[in-house]
């Protein structure tokens, strides 16, 4: 087993990795930027090394400084987390060239999955269903037009070097193709330094469902079921859950087996995710993420498998101990990404010092956090403050548990996405499991402050009563008041509950 690990990340995922490492008896080294000097990941590691000033380009993205820290602290392995350097093949290569263990797949696998057309070709050859379309880039708009006729409109132009939605263009008909092609090429070049584009049939309103994979260095791969990630806005996921409310055991098995074929086709080692689009009983491979994902806890809760611990164990050469049949899914888990963004202002980033933080607790509640009271939220990094994850026997119980946990959460100092999440937990289509990647745009009310007329009226009455009581108390001191009036002001109080 690895005995020491450098965690090349920050925030909640760095804390998560440090926790797994400690349980395995692994010594941990954190790295940090100047403003993160007192951050939780620095405090929880056994040692910490300063990388540089706040900007990521001068700290968490500095491969040279990270490798120097690894050398000076004499660690054996490096865990990249997600984001930052996690899916940069050059980083994986630099780590192994330095004689260290990279906790993740090798540079070749990261590269193979980074090129979308090459990945599609490989997946098609491996018998993994892909969205109908091309497996090669097109040279010009005439070639694109010919392909589009064959695929059938609407089609979607995508950047071959892409991912994450950049350089994507929906094309409704042949007349719109030439301009869309030029725009997609330009955007692909700007975003990825490569103007190659290809096309697929456009799916209108599918679900985003992904399969968690684990592979070891002895050619074993298992899947750990799916996560439903349809609730997103501008390619940022907001709520994830496991299992998906739509998958039958048969579909889960078919999708899981396809994902395992995908992983085996690239000799996958470590934790990875196969992303699919799902529509009307059909599923299509989209891309493979060669990292631990933000939403991994929902899978951990329904499988009982510690994914980060297993990343470290397979990186140490251990064998996965399960056959596929031994992986079972129990109960339901939901995750809300608590970000420093204001849902009532179009998810505008919010900054400031967190002056007060009350973390939800109680049965079935998990908090994967990366901030504490006194922490200053800036614009330098991703707005994810923490993940609130709940587990319950059934989906509806998990939703009600999440609503309860969100009511317990208090963050003072920055606005958070929690107001949005509360609205989602109460929304009918969500509760019915009616989800597509267009869920947020199709429910614009979720992005507006809900005026609760009843609560407003109750608050006004309470204020009047308190004022009246206060006046009487002044006039006739020492006449007993119950003091119960104030309890009406507790968080999440419902009108009627205190009358
Ligand atoms: C699609 C699609 C519809 N049809 N491909 C967006 C990011 C990139 N990874 C793939 N994406 C999509 N590909 C076809 N053929 C719709 C999306 C898409 C999407 C996919 C997953 C999660 C959220 C999304 C939001 C908008 C569009």
Helix content: 25-40%
The poorly predicted ranges are 477-491, 495-499
Radius of gyration, taken over Cα atoms and rounded to an integer in Å? 25 Å
Helix and strand composition category: alpha+beta
Number of separate strands: 22
Count of spatially separate domains: 4
Summarize the structure.
The protein has helices at residues 11-23, 40-44, 63-72, 89-97, 107-114, 116-125, 141-151, 177-192, 249-265, 296-303, 307-315, 395-408, 418-426, 428-431, 453-475, and strands at residues 4-7, 27-33, 47-52, 77-79, 101-102, 155-159, 169-171, 197-201, 207-215, 221-233, 236-242, 270-279, 282-289, 332-339, 341-342, 348-349, 352-353, 356-358, 365-369, 376-377, 384-392, 410-412. It has 499 residues and is of the alpha+beta class. Strands 13-12-9-10-11-14-21-19 form an eight-stranded antiparallel sheet. A five-stranded parallel sheet has the order 3-2-1-4-5. Strands 7-6-8 form a three-stranded antiparallel sheet.
């Amino acid at each position: 087993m690895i005995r020491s690990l450098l965690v090349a990340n920050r925030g909640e995922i760095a804390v998560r990795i440090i926790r797994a490492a400690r349980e395995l008896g692994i010594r941990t080294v954190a790295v940090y930027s100047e403003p993160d000097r007192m951050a939780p990941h620095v405090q929880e590691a056994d040692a910490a090394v300063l990388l540089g000033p706040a900007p990521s380009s001068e700290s968490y993205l500095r491969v040279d400084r990270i490798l120097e820290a690894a050398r000076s602290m004499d660690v054996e392995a490096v865990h990249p987390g997600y984001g930052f350097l996690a899916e940069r093949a050059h980083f994986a290569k630099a780590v192994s060239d330095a004689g260290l263990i990279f906790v993740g797949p090798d540079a070749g696998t990261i590269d193979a999955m980074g090129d979308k057309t090459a990945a599609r070709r490989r997946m098609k050859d491996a018998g993994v269903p892909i969205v109908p379309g091309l497996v090669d880039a097109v040279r010009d708009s005439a070639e694109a037009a010919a392909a589009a006729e064959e695929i059938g409109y609407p089609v979607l132009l995508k950047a071959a070097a892409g991912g994450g939605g950049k350089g994507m263009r929906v094309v409704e008909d042949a007349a719109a193709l030439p301009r869309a092609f030029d725009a997609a090429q330009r955007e692909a070049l700007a975003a990825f330094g490569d103007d190659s584009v290809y096309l697929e049939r456009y799916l209108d309103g599918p679900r985003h469902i992904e399969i968690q994979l684990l592979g070891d260095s002895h050619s074993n791969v298992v899947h750990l079921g799916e996560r439903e990630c349809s609730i997103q806005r501008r390619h940022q996921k907001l709520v994830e859950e496991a299992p998906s409310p739509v998958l039958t055991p048969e579909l889960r098995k078919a999708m899981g087996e396809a994902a395992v074929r995908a992983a085996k086709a690239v000799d996958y080692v470590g934790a990875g995710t196969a992303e699919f689009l799902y529509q009307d009983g059909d599923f299509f491979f989209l891309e493979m993420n060669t990292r631990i994902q933000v939403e991994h806890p929902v899978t951990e809760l329904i499988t009982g498998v510690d994914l980060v611990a297993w990343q470290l164990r397979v990186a140490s050469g251990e064998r996965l101990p399960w056959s596929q049949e031994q992986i079972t899914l129990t109960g339901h888990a939901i995750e809300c990404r608590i970000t420093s963004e204001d849902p009532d202002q179009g998810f505008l980033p919010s900054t400031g010092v967190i002056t007060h933080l009350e973390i939800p607790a109680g049965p079935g509640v998990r908090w994967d956090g990366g901030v504490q009271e006194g922490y200053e939220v800036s614009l330098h990094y991703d707005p994810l403050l923490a993940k609130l994850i709940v587990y319950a026997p059934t989906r509806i119980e998990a939703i009600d548990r999440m609503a309860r946990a969100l009511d317990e959460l208090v963050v003072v100092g920055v606005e958070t996405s929690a107001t949005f999440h509360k609205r989602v937990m109460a929304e009918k289509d969500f509760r019915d499991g009616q989800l597509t990647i267009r869920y947020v745009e199709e429910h614009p009310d979720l992005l507006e402050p809900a005026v609760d007329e009843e609560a407003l009226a109750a608050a006004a009455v309470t204020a009047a009563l308190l004022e009246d009581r206060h006046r009487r108390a002044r006039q006739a001191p020492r006449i007993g008041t119950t003091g119960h009036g104030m309890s009406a002001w507790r968080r999440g109080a419902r009108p009627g509950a205190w009358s």
